[in-house]
Amino acid sequence: MATSKTAARGRSSRRIGVAALSLMLCSGPALALEDFLTLQFGPRDGGSSAVTERQRLRELERNPPPGYPTLSPANIAATKAAIARYAKIVEAGGWNPVPEAVVKPGEQHFALVEVRDRLIVSGELSPDAAGGDTLDGTLEAALKAYQSTNGLTPNGRLDKPTVAALNVSAEDRLKQLKINLKRITELAGVVKSQNKYVVVNIPAAQVEAVALNKVISRHTGVVGKIDRPTPILRSSITEINFNPVWRLPPTVIQKDLIPQGREMQARGENVLLKTGIEAYSNGKKVDPEKVDWSSPAVKSYAYRQPPGKDNPLGFVKINFANSDSVYMHDSPSEGLFGRNFRAASSGCIRVHNVERLAYWLLGQNNGWDQERVEKMKETGERLDVKLATPVPLHFVYISAWATEDGTIHFRRDLYNRDGVAEIATSY
């Protein structure tokens, strides 16, 4: 009975087509706009050599396709349509929970019957696909479509994060859409007059470079931890530091460096000597051998790390005025960019393929072509460059929205700002 009820509800919902899935999973050609605003940095990938499925998925996490702008004015009407659609789903009774299970393509499991019913309701499967307990090609494609639009790695498997996302109630998804419509409406009005801007969508952990309402490049990002959230802000990017000095922010000093310094001191080790970080008191360098981490004096020191391969800022730091002491930067560690959950910083934004973003930001600066940006990385030359024209920047919290092609997107309510059930924050 549950299956027939679900199928009936599914007939009232629009199916996500193959074109939408292809858009999410495939990277199209570079935009052919002549304006300097659309300058792109190099190819999207390094070649066509065969890679394993795991490597392919990791590469997809690191290099997401451009897609549509999150703050596009067209998303207002699309999100309103999504709200109307989800209101009907809720009115019809929503969907049944999916049992926890881990199932790979080709395998059988009783939970897949409920998974099919669930995906019929939200539109990734047609009603005639109900009933089967095998993860066949049709269900695998539907799971990939669902995972792509819910910020999950599109592996086509039933796994723990996918089950958790599927089990966020229709009521909570509807609530997210309504809350985010207000955010999108306000922000779309702001960016409408901006020919060129950058968006950091915190719940999606992604960075968009947008020009003329087109996403020129989309970058995987690493955002603040749950207990060190990235702030919502509006500013303008004014400067790029190549091979920067890292001046440790207060949060890192208090919560990371000092506790680590005390632990290592107890073992007879020196955190400053090991990391290359330098301590300064009243502008004078402090002998690292004389630093007593149990003394209150360490809280008054300034700390910095010179440029180099171990510098956590990598070779680019992107500056903008803000009251939270945050910035965007490169990272010498590639590992986190290939993961699905990327809330791991102290509030700043790490940006994958940051050289592409740097080149685009410097589009109006004479002499700053792709080759010169690459050379800065190769040589390690220390240089600060002010942008000829500041670029508007928006750190936003958009966890549910629809794009102009009708695709509905959801992300984790990472910092629990939507007021929905905890399950929506933790998958």
What does the model show?
The protein is an alpha+beta fold. Among the domains are: 2-31 and 70-174 and 401-426, no CATH class; 247-305, no CATH class. The chain has 13 helices and 15 strands. It has helices at 2-11, 18-25, 53-62, 74-91, 111-122, 137-149, 160-166, 170-191, 250-266, 271-275, 354-361, 370-379, 423-426, and strands at 196-201, 206-211, 214-224, 233-242, 246-247, 278-281, 284-285, 302-305, 316-320, 328-329, 343-345, 349-351, 383-396, 400-402, 408-410. Strands 1-2-3-12-10-9-4-13 form an eight-stranded mixed beta barrel. α1 (2-11) runs parallel beside α5, α2 (18-25) packs across α6 (137-149) and α4 runs antiparallel to α8 (170-191).
Sheet-strand content, in percent, reads 15-25%
The geometry reads as: globular
Biggest sheet: strand arrangement:
1-2-3-12-10-9-4-13
Output the radius of gyration: 24 Å
Number of helices: 13
Helix content: 25-40%
Class computed from helices, strands and strand pairing: alpha+beta
Termini separation: 29 Å
What series of H and E elements makes up the topology?
Answer: HHHHHHHHEEEEEHHEEEEEEEHHEEEH
Mean pLDDT: 87
Count of strand segments: 15
Poorly predicted runs of 5 or more residues = 1-50
